[in-house]
């Protein structure tokens, strides 16, 4: 199998110095993704990941509840890769939302086989719905920041709460991702474009006031 791709993007900002705990978490994640690329998701055990990362099994469970929980780190990595880039872009908030949706879709498709199995296993866990918001927490924060910038620039109306808008957008993205997991042939890029158009422009026909 081909190596899995990480969410890397060029940026002028210096890399942040991670603490020991975060470095260990990243090493576990990157080791797992490398092994998944070499042996497939089902062909890698938690013991394999621990051996590759040079850690004890107890250390793995300090950072991740299960092998499927590595999906948290996947989303966090993509979010971190694009957050500073988006903060310095001159594009509109709408353009940034389309860019972010496309970026996530590209990363998921680059690692499609593994991500489908990881997502399926994650959602099959007992009470998975209770941790779904945690899974998307970093993504919601990033989308909320984009919406907030859009409000500050006068692109969006100021009367909505960015966090609520972000939660609604990310919840729909998650639903589209789940649909793609079961229907890999689906054109989710078209779905994302249509959804963002609805989210930003609404369902109502715009009427011109008569003078």
Write the layout of secondary structure elements.
Elements: H1 20-39, H2 46-53, H3 57-63, H4 71-87, H5 93-110, H6 112-123, H7 132-135, H8 137-152, H9 162-182, H10 188-201
Helix pairs in contact: 1-2, 4-5, 4-8, 5-8, 5-10, 6-9, 8-9, 9-10
Task: Supply database-style keywords.
0% strand; Tetracycline Repressor, domain 2; mainly alpha; 211 residues; single chain; elongated
**CATH second-level architecture of the domain at 67-201:** Orthogonal Bundle
Overall SS class: mainly alpha
CATH homologous group name of the domain at 67-201:
Tetracycline Repressor, domain 2
Along the chain, the helix and strand elements come as HHHHHHHHHH
Shape: elongated
Number of DSSP helical runs: 10
Q: Look up the CATH topology of the domain at 67-201.
A: Tetracycline Repressor, domain 2
Largest sheet properties: none
Give the fraction of residues assigned to helices: 55-70%
Tell me how many strands there are.
Answer: 0
Q: Gyration radius, to the nearest Å?
A: 19 Å
Sheet-strand content, in percent, reads: under 5%
CA(first)-CA(last) distance = 66 Å
Q: Low-confidence segments, ≥5 residues, pLDDT <50? A: 1-17
**So what's the CATH class of the domain at 67-201?**
Mainly Alpha
- How confident is the prediction overall: mean pLDDT? 81
């Amino acid at each position: 199998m081909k190596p899995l791709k990480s969410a890397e993007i060029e940026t002028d900002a210096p890399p942040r110095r991670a603490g020991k705990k975060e470095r260990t978490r990243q090493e576990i994640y990157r080791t797992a993704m490398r092994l998944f690329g070499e042996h497939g998701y089902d062909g890698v055990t938690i013991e394999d990941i621990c051996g590759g990362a040079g850690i004890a099994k107890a250390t793995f469970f300090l950072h991740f509840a299960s092998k499927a929980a590595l999906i948290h780190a996947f989303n966090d990595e993509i979010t971190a890769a694009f957050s500073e880039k988006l903060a310095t872009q001159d594009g509109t908030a709408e353009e940034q939302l389309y860019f972010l949706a496309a970026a996530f879709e590209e990363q998921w498709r680059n690692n499609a086989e593994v991500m489908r199995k990881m997502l399926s296993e994650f959602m099959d866990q007992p009470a998975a719905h209770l941790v779904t918001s945690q899974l998307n927490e970093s993504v919601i924060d990033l989308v909320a920041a984009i919406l907030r910038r859009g409000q500050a620039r006068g692109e969006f109306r100021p009367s909505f709460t960015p966090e609520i808008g972000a939660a609604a957008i990310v919840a729909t993205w998650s639903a589209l991702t789940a649909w793609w997991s079961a229907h890999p042939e689906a054109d989710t890029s078209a779905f994302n474009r249509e959804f963002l158009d609805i989210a930003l422009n609404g369902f109502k026909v715009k009427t011109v006031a008569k003078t």
